[in-house]
Amino acid sequence: MDTPEKNQIGTPISKFEDSPVFNYINSLSPIKPVKSIHVTQTFNPLNFASLPSVFTSPHVNSHKESRFLKRKTYLDGSKPEFSSGIGNKICTNEGIGMDGAQLFVNSAELQETFDPEVSLGEASVQASTEHSKFVIELPCTLKYDCGSPDCDPPPLCGTETGYVSDLVGKSALLVQNDQEASKKGSSEDEMHLSEMCQTGQKIEGMESGWESLISDVSDLLIFTSPTNSEAFKELIEKSMDPMTRFSTSLMSQLQQIDINDVQTMQIVDPTGSSEQHEINNPSAATGEASELQEIEQTKDNTADNLNKGMSSNTSEQMNSGVATFIPYASKAVSNLYRGMRRRCLDFEMVGARRKNLGDASDLSSSTLDEKIACYDKRLVPIKPSGDSSRCILPGIGLHLNALATNSKDHKNVKHESLSSGQQLYLPSSTASVNSPTNSQEPLRISLTSVSSSERDTELAENGISHVEDASQGSAYLVSDEFNQNSPKKKRRRLEHAGESESCKRCNCKKSKCLKLYCECFAAGVYCIEPCSCQECFNKPIHEDTVLATRKQIESRNPLAFAPKVIRSSESVTEIGDESSKTPASARHKRGCNCKKSNCLKKYCECYQGGVGCSIGCRCEGCKNAFGRKDEAAPMGIEADQEEETDACENSVMDKDLQKSDNQNSEEQNPTSTLPTTPLRLSRPALPLPFSSNCKPPRSSFLTVGSSSGLYTSQKFGKPNIIRSLPKIERHSQTVPEDEMPEILRGNTSPNTGIKSASPNRKRVSPPHSGFGSSPSHRSGRKLILQSIPSFPSLTPKH
DNA sequence: GAGTTTGAAACT
DNA sequence: CAGTTTCAAACTC
User: Fold this and answer.
1) Confidence of residue A28 (pLDDT cuts 50, 70, 90)
2) Which of A46, A378, A400, A696 would you label with A131, given CA atoms 20 to 30 Å apart?
3) Which of residues 486-505 of A touch strand C (CB under 7 A)?
4) Domain final residue, candidates A336, A368, A403
């Protein structure tokens, strides 16, 4: 039991076949051990399908679903704060989904309909039986999970072990009946189970074993498609991250189980790259080799043996095969997610995804979209076709999607990585798919380094809490419906994570969240639990309504969903390059109309956005710390601003003002005129004020291209991080990413510190930039650019 | 947490 | 386009 598996791991599948046992089995059962992809796929679906039924709490499911959606769209994940856990799952799912996205969709059906007999190979047959068992037992496990989403490996293991024991028992029966053929299956199952348990424990206690398992599975899946080793690694990492995040959720467990099965199955499948084989083989080989041993043991000790022996063996196997991957994942995972993926973009996610995916991978994208639609909305009937869907939310979704897909640029990742490794993930993943070679390494590095550090911190801080957060986050995403079910978790998350950071919520009472009054709607994101809105229609369920409303609004004002803060047109035009670098130029699209706040409070959109007032503003007594209207001209640093305008008005001057003034005085700047101007310097400071407040920028960012930025940014911060970027682009300040998006600007301005405030990201600017085209500049920019287009796209359909 | 202030969004 | 109303965030207590 103990070691043989390990050794075997390395052995190729061929050995199996050669083994006498194998031959014997073949002779006995009509079914031939075919390792076909199909089988694996079927399993995956099964897993998913089974899960829902199993889960006592809908949240879990919802989370998963949401994550899927998000993930794809985001890819980067940036947002991971809340949903971290979920995100991981999604990743894994995605991994599977990528290969067999379709599988997911149909999984439920497949599972149920699945006839063992029908199954192609032994594995499939066994798997089916196993699944059924799982389904039965899962509920128990799920319950546990639900109760303590935290990773708690021990509990999970315990449950699993129980499960395993059951499986074993069943397997034994099967063996008797089917004899060897069944044996394999049982042994494999055991293996999987034990592996899961062990992996969970071994892998940094923090991370759940599930994750590792999942990661492995995902890896396998991934492998099938992408050949490049690097890409492979990235993929793995991605999957890993998500996994880690979730560690806790039952879903993960279930998935893992499924995954395990899948892995074995996949292993069989040759389609994958050589790497896959290696990995797979080990498991398979171990499974077989161990089978005999295990079978015997199982008879006697079943449960115990499985737990002990399997755990050790399996873990090793896992490690040996997958281990290399895991590290990445584990590191990255923790970091990634805090953030938030969130709902943001969910809307458009679908549409955007399609587009984006189209680039990267049509197949996956299409399937993903469907999935997403289902999950996102929770079943909201989004159209798979996507065209329509796309149109619907082009804005946000596109942005996000674009970002995700585009994120390819690894470079971007690095930028982001500074703040958070998470972002890297998404991009990397996408990147890996698209163009793994270049960026991958860099990404990895950044990820690992960053993620590890972050993770550590997080772990230290949050510890178990992460899990919860993740789960919650997922819940958020999904769930409106679910929210009610498990509001506690959500609340917790919010509190812990800091609501502000992760996401804002709206409090609409009369607008039904279908007007721009609603921050969520304005940002292009669906309302989620944290929202205390009433009669909210801004949910996936009402997607049609939301889209229709959006269209109407856009028809009225095409830029309604565009970021309010924009860079100067000049800069925008140049977007492509760094040339524009002038972050400072950012300005509020329409200008404010403040009369009493002196543009020193968030009532002022300019101020909220972290940008100075410009000529276009009709404000009275402007004292905008970021730049007075009067000053629009160039001010340098002087802080006079305050004085100038009217000191009079000042009653308003708040502490904030003072602070901001001090910090920002520089920025004040210019306003419209300046596109380039100096604001930058000051900007950095500007953001701070917001940050302090912190609310997370709502979605606004998200909506636009910036959204992508947001995500990333959020990731970083997780909770804290983001600061509140105001709706506008302020996130840019805090988060470089945002800036990135800004496009060019950014590239961010050279000033390191800058981030500046330039909110540009959102800039309306030139939509033109095609997603694909985006040049290499820094990832950030690219993203931005891509995102930008989205705006226009908002109304795409037409 | 309730109430007030504020300015954008929506409406006329 | 201007004026008014509606709305929800921001803010204050």
Assistant:
1) low
2) A378
3) 504
4) A336
